[in-house]
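May I ask for an example protein's residues together with how it folds?

___
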Amino acid sequence: MTRGLNGLKSFRRRFGAWVLLCCVLLLAAPSGAAAAVPLMPLSEVRVGAQGIARTVIAGTRIEEFGVEVLGIMKNKGAVGDLILVRTYGDVIDRAGGVAQGMSGSPVFIDGQLIGAIGYGWSLTDQRTAMVTPIQDMLKIFEYKSPSSPIAAPADRPGDQSDDKSATPPEKNKNQSKPPAVDQPAGKSRQLLATPLMAAGFGSNALAYLQTHLKPLQLSPVTVGDPPSDIAYGDLEPGSAVGVQLVRGDVSLGALGTVTYVDDNRILAFGHPFLKRGSADFLMTNAYIFTTIRGLESSFKLGTTGEVVGTITQDRGAGVAGEMNRFPGIVPLRMNIRAADSGGRELAVQIVQDEEILPILATASLLNAIDKAIDRTGSGTARITFEVAARGMPGETYKRENMFYSPENIAEASLTEFYELIAFLASNPHNPVTIMDIRADVDVSPDRRTARILSARPLQTSVRPGDTIDIEVKLKPYRAEPITRTVSFTVPKEQNAGALSLSVRGGGFFSLAALLKKVAADGGEVPKPSRKPPKSFEEMIKELSSRDRNNDIVVELPGAAETLEDGTDKKPKLKLGESEKAAVDREPTKPEKPAKPKPAGPLLAPRKIDQKKKGFLTTDYIIEGDTEVSIEILPAGKP
């Protein structure tokens, strides 16, 4: 018994010693992530102190350049003071000064990190810059990061771009502040657009991005993909880092420099990117082709590489990221068929940011169409797109339509696509997360339009509730006239008497119907109400019932006059009552009618009453309108 107890005690001693040894080895083993460097608080930074900064100006190799402290600029930064420095050395000489893309470059004095280069000036001495203190940047870690799905990113690396400029406070975006290094400003300190590295975009899509991203102080420039044999190392202070917005068959993103690494967390830029606060952007490593000297400012020309994590915070003092965590993205799959040049299937992943998602998705689809048809000009497009979204009634929306443009069919065909994505992303009713988008587009160089020449009812006398056929004569472009027949059911509550029906193209608002409505209302044009839509479900239902441009529509006068905001503007013309009787019954008002406009696209301010119309879908975009008259017999009489 004693021998057994002694053996047990001996085992416990040996086991305890083994556990202790394992703990010591684990503590001594490298963690696989860069360890945090010593820090110097702003209070210890002295004028005249010299140190070094680190950045990449070509390839992936980190190089050092000299830095001398010139002074402390009180309350000049986005969150506090900035450190004014002068840079020097071979790296600065080769780069032409502090270049766009150097934002985030860590600055060390006596081996201690004081902060990140974040701001500078253009058209002046480009060797002078301002440093965001590290203690201000570390506060970004205190913000709570948003939860995001852990999903593997696409395999194909995306593009990249230079850093973004420092964004002023939200309530005063024009307020003067030191320009970001990636967005240097002139003597007036006005913010300039930050280059976004755009890979795979054609000239038409690039122009679209430049126009629509300009209000965000972003300016896309064309780059290529990185060399295929690049071996990226771990992110460390001085490494090039990318904030990517689109990746896949095209890519779009901004470049900066890593300032600080602590385990799986990083700080970069030293100024905001879009100043989103909590963010969910793709974080990548990056490759720099070269640094280009410029008269206004120099900039790094590079591209984003492999996805390594998520940018979780976008604040005044910089951006923060988390490695080995991947953001929520929106897959966009595009199948383009061109009658004269074959077809192409493309796919991208886009960050889930409600402000820029509609722009980025539309630009990606525009680029896919341009690449498939390989031309710019007139044509006809048939587009079908389907959106899956969490928080949307039914969770799937599908829309089909046809478009013709005499100038740019690729861009003209995407009006409804953009409007729907924008509506879902920023609707005031429900939070919606777009999960997937698919678009199928058929493009032809032919002009597939047809104008309404005339229409006649095949039955001239009907009763309420009866269905009649309207024969519509169409003149296709450069072709012989054709006829199509549209059915229309007379409402059961229709009064006896003469009744005029409007016959029009689905994308065309009847001018005659509007003028008669104005006359019936005594010369008063219906004015939009400011009341919001009644519900998100009603708005989605309304969007789903929109006429298509290739529909022939037959409807009662006033059937298309319910406004988009859900306010019913009922005509004062009673069912079956003549227009003259309505005018005699209502006093006219001396207000000048507003100039009528053609029907707009998906979100035009009108709502069709499905109970008061009939339609027929054709293979032509229908133009023009006309009217037919029928006699409504009293109900129940032979």
